[in-house]
Design brief:
Helices cover 34% and strands 19% of the residues. It is an alpha+beta fold. The radius of gyration is 15 Å and the shape is globular.
């Protein structure tokens, strides 16, 4: 993920926590803070030590970054997204992480409408 797409400063995280909206499911909490002056979106990740050891936490962050990379065309620009991983994520593989993350983003109504999937079965008569 490019540097300009990351949230690294504590001030930016705190701003998202205090002024943003939050959405959650069992695996993730997502804070969305709207910024009009931002042409792109930015992502901040947080994985607590309670989730697992360093290897597990880094793997979760890689999965989340890749999921966001694949969903970047559907994410609304001009927002800061702070994603907090909960304990159940430690036992999930990449596809489960992506499905859960896209679910919580849909609940938060920050994903654009999806186009028709290419792998969808089509029957013709």
């Amino acid at each position: 993920m490019k540097k300009e797409l990351r949230i690294k400063k504590n001030k930016d995280f705190q701003e998202a926590f205090q002024k943003g909206r939050s959405f959650a499911n069992r695996q993730f909490v997502v804070y969305v803070f709207e910024k009009e002056d931002l042409p792109l979106f930015r992502i901040g990740l947080s994985v607590s030590k309670k989730v697992g050891n360093a290897v597990t936490r880094n793997q979760i962050k890689r999965y989340v970054r890749q999921s966001i990379f694949e969903l970047k065309d559907q994410l609304l620009p001009g927002n800061d997204y702070v994603i907090i991983a909960r304990k159940p994520v430690a036992d999930m593989d990449f596809f489960e992480v992506k499905k859960s993350l896209s679910h919580v983003l849909k609940v938060g109504k920050v994903l654009k409408k999806e186009t028709v999937a290419y792998n969808e079965k089509r029957t013709s008569f």
